[in-house]
Amino acid sequence: xxxxxxxxxxxxxxxxxxxxxxxxxxxxxxxxxxxxxxxxxxxxxxxxxxxxxxxxxxxxxxxxxxxxxxxxxxxxxxxxxxxxxxxxxxxxxxxxxxxxxxxxxxxxxxxxxxxxxxxxxxxxxxxxxxxxxxxxxxxxxxxxxxxxxxxxxxxxxxxxxxxxxxxxxxxxxxxxxxxxxxxxxxxxxxxxxxxxxxxxxxxxxxxxxxxxxxxxxxxxxxxxxxxxxxxxxxxxxxxxxxxxxxxxxxxxxxxxxxxxxxxxxxxxxxxxxxxxxxxxxxxxxxxxxxxxxxxxxxxxxxxxxxxxxxxxxxxxxxxxxxxxxxxxxxxxxxxxxxxxxxxxxxxxxxxxxxxxxxxxxxxxxxxxxxxxxxxxxxxxxxxxxxxxxxxxxxxxxxxxxxxxxxxxxxxxxxxxxxxxxxxxxxxxxxxxxxxxxxxxxxxxxxxxxxxxxxxxxxxxxxxxxxxxxxxxxxxxxxxxxxxxxxxxxxxxxxxxxxxxxxxxxxxxxxxx
Length: 512
Prior knowledge:
By secondary structure, this protein is mainly beta. Among the domains are: 2-53, no CATH class; 65-151, no CATH class; 302-479, Regulator of chromosome condensation 1/beta-lactamase-inhibitor protein II (Methylamine Dehydrogenase, Chain H, 7 Propeller). It contains three helices and 34 strands. The strands form ten sheets. It has a four-stranded antiparallel sheet with strand order 7-8-9-10, with no helix packed on it. A hairpin with a 2-residue loop joins strand 23 and strand 24 (364-369). The longest helix is centred in the first third of the chain and has 17 residues, at 2-18. The protein is elongated and about 100 Å long. Mean pLDDT is 84; it is low at 1-54.
């Protein structure tokens, strides 16, 4: 009496397991719709008929799988959901009536979306939006460390003519200022000013530095030497081979393996490769001053470059042999030497010393020597040359290089500030945190024009980094605070205001 029952149970079990695993077509005895022909035996006799009438046809054995929590019998043992595995992310779980129920979260994780099937999806030890618990959001300049919001270190700053940016140690980039060309990305309304920092999205996670720029474009360099650009691209500013009003972050097509340094002027950018060759693109970048060159090129540019800087639409570079100028000179790049119309080749340029190691330009240019001397040239508006002589009253008079008088030796950073046409200056930073400046008050935050270097008033500890463009910025010793001064027409000081330049240091919001 037990044998038929066992046989019937087996037949039913096989039929159940075979529902999801159809047998091959066996002619009249196995129609494609799975039904039995009219003359076929019923129940288990169908299997017997197939075996006896078609001995050469191979039939599928039932496919049994590990049990899962879904109210079905996957392992073909006649029991549903026994020992079904429920592996929800970072959480304890159990299978109850065909459903995986969420249990306790692992330490350091939380269920913040309220969806049991995603488990405890948030790592509260590192998530900036859920730091230490759900919906605990860190500030814009903070990261989440072991469940606590902490201030991020500033890796680099690029004060600009339209917008300013800061790179944080998490590789996030924050910018503020003008978005008139859509420079901040599609999520920010074009044409508005942002006097407080906002985050630029779409950049890689291994950034190490930024390039200052006086245009509405931004550039960031990765640890592997790849260069990314974003913002206006109307004159081929981004070096991506096309020209357009604006672009989100894009990889610059340099045609070289990697980049070691990058510098921008008003509308062009030049990058130095490991062989110290200069690759440039944008507007007015070549020896013939081509406009709208969207693809990086090394043609007509100096080699052996160790430092380069742009002013207006001209360039100065320190090479292994000498200092050279190239591009179009409308801002005194070549000192008092007049520009020859249509002639823009690479030319040697003489300084009072032969060991120049760095060059920096803004409203004028300055170069520093290996022995600590500094020489400036171009416009002397506001006392930008730092030679103690009376400064120029108007724009348009350009001077040959002269030594800066009274500047202490031993500086470790040198930056020029200002813009062609208004008062400019320069500052030098020292290892002890001191910063010495000279020039127009809008450029150097001294509160007055200074034709000779003076020490800048800084908070205790002084500066750990110095940055310059139309104005200046200093990163303070704790490396989380940023103080800036200078132009603020579009909110490029980042203090929440716009329209009025500052001749004193102001705190960038989030970096107080």
